[in-house]
Amino acid sequence: MDTHTIETPQIQTEKPKLKKPPMYKVILLNDDYTPMEFVVDLLCNYFRKSENDAMQIMLRIHHEGQAVCALYPKDLAESKVQQVEGHCIAHGHPLKCRIEVDSSD
């Protein structure tokens, strides 16, 4: 008589630790042509910054050459760059932005 051993599946008792997706900085770059007011409006409308925060970021861009506007997952960050650059082109401004991975985690 053959005897077969039936193995019961093991139940996982601990939840697997999920790794958070990397976040990306959306960075606006300074140029000598885009008006400061346009940059402030852009920050308020596309990044939901308050007027005061937008002014501070705009000044940082102006004085330091660039500034971080927001942190997003990669897909959202890329989408923001496209939206912002499209808006700038539509209004005749050469303002550029880029993304870079946030290494502060």
Gist?
This protein has 105 residues and is of the alpha+beta class.
Shape: elongated
How many structurally independent domains? 1
In spatial order, strands of the major sheet run 2-1-3
Task: Tell me the number of helical segments per DSSP (H or I, 4 or more residues long).
Answer: 3
Q: Please tell me the CATH architecture by its name.
A: 2-Layer Sandwich
Could you tell me the mean pLDDT?
91
Helix content: 40-55%
Query: The CATH topology is what?
Result: Ribosomal Protein L30, Chain: A
State Rg. 23 Å
Total strands: 3
| Stretches with pLDDT under 50, minimum 5 residues | none
Please explain how this structure is put together.
There is one protein chain. The chain has one domain: 2-Layer Sandwich (Ribosomal Protein L30, Chain: A), CATH 3.30.1390.10. Helix 1 packs across helix 2 (51-64). It is elongated, with a radius of gyration of 23 Å. The chain contains 3 helices and 3 strands, in the order E-H-H-E-H-E. It is α+β, with helices and mostly antiparallel strands and 105 residues long. 18% of the residues are buried. The N and C termini lie far apart (61 Å). It has helices at residues 36-47, 51-64, 74-90, and strands at 23-29, 66-73, 96-101. The model has no long low-confidence stretch (mean pLDDT 91). The chain has a 3-stranded antiparallel β-sheet with strand order 2-1-3.
